[in-house]
Amino acid sequence: MTLTDDFLSCEALVRKTDRDRYLSSLFAPSHVRRHLHALYAFNYEVAKTADTVSQPVMGQIRLQWWRDAVEEIYAGAARNHEVVRALAETVRDHDLPHALFDALIDARENDLDEAPFADWASVEAYADATSGHVMRLAARILGAQSRANEGAGEAGIAYALVGLLRAFPFHASRRRLMLPIAALGDAALSQEQVFSGTMDSKITDVFAQVLRRTRMHWETARKGKIPRAFLPALLPAASVPLYAKIMTRPGFNPFRDSAEIAVHRCQLAMLRAMLRGRI
Is this model's pTM higher than 0.90 or not? Predict the structure, then answer.
């Protein structure tokens, strides 16, 4: 395969598995889109780890593979893997910080831990190191350097939190709780009730808690001044209010009802954000 083929493979993977980030990349200049696709394909490969292994130790081995692959990229080499080869050129062309990749991979080890997050600080640190770092790296590909760091962090946390709610029934089916145990305590909800897959008003209360935190971070991100040239990096967060609206409808049941939004609505939300100059 040629390097062009590698980038095309990354584009196809992102288009299939990460619709919001794929749509956001279409608002970026054409000459950097392939580098965004390489970044997002890398993020997908790392993020899917917990869902593709049967034992935590196998997930740790897989994450170490990616950690080593990134280390080799910065040493001037690239493994025989289409995403790694595309990412290597992306890193070289845009001088992306090694530390952000390491922190992102380290944070994904939380996905392998059966113990839930203890508090909101832990969840938000995880969201910042995963979704936030992806946005920081994307902003650098767009030329922002460190100028979008704060906005990317707030937008990334908001997007990650609403993503955890979207994945709530999937995680529950695997007896995983990716929300803070403190939130369950505030709603007097047990983990076993969550894992049972039975809707309860207490689950509605937990969703309301998460969405309040989501709204707080999203509003903070909106107030930040991000030059329009760098905004495509944050555009996935433009869909946050749409997801929140679905999940706050009367009678919404995450175990029964889809929280997905139509493609055209997502595209319009991103277009409006670009025209406004903020998410």
Answer: yes
